[in-house]
Design goal:
Layout lengths: L1 H25 L2 E6 L2 E4 L3 H12 L10 E8 L1 E2 L4 E9 L4 E10 L2 E4 L10 H5 E7 L6 E5 L2 E5 L14 E7 L3
Parallel strand pairs: 4-9
Antiparallel strand pairs: 1-2, 1-7, 3-5, 5-6, 6-7, 6-8, 8-11, 9-10
């Protein structure tokens, strides 16, 4: 009788821990990939509110009109495929990027840095590019490390463009 009772408790705890693990994995699930088509599964209204609250709380003219998934190749030392969320404010000419990690056919937002990963900074940071249409998020590889920038130049310089401001932010979620 006691052995059956312990087996039942063990089974319940095991199922609970598996469920918790799966929830932790999927709570940051942002989109799925099917061929070259992306299906955003996250609540984009909630995500827009999050961006507004933490990045532009006092700027009434900033509202995010569009959320999309972008797939690009890095510039710089080598070309690597990467994915990111692009939030756009058309009126304010802001493009805000956030890294997505691809596992199989799922794209996840990273909310905690893996400090053993030398590219941890890029995976948890947000890049805001404000300015003309060529002032867009990009990732460059310099000396083996990845960096956000607002141009397609390998050196990340956006100073050559008069109307392009870049800022990188980290939010602890």
């Amino acid at each position: 009788m006691k052995i059956e009772y312990f087996k039942l408790i063990f089974l319940i705890l095991f199922c609970f821990s598996i469920n918790s693990y799966l929830y932790a994995q999927d709570k940051n699930l942002f989109a799925t990939v099917e061929k070259d088509d992306y299906k955003i599964v996250a609540d984009t209204v909630k995500y827009k509110s999050f961006l507004k609250k933490y990045f532009y709380p006092n700027e009434e003219d900033v509202s995010f009109d569009k959320i999309s998934i972008k797939k690009q190749y890095t510039v710089g030392e080598r070309k690597e495929l990467y994915y990111f969320i692009l939030a756009e404010s058309f009126k304010s000419n802001i493009r805000l990027a956030s890294w997505l990690e691809k596992e199989d056919s799922k794209l996840y937002r990273i909310t905690e840095a893996d400090l053993n990963n030398k590219n941890a900074g890029i995976t948890v940071s947000y890049l805001a590019c404000q300015g003309q249409s060529s002032c867009t998020p990009n990732v460059s590889i310099i000396e083996g490390e990845k960096y956000w920038g607002c141009s397609d130049r390998a050196d990340l310089a956006c100073g050559f463009m008069e109307d392009c401001k870049a800022s990188t932010m980290i939010i602890s979620e």
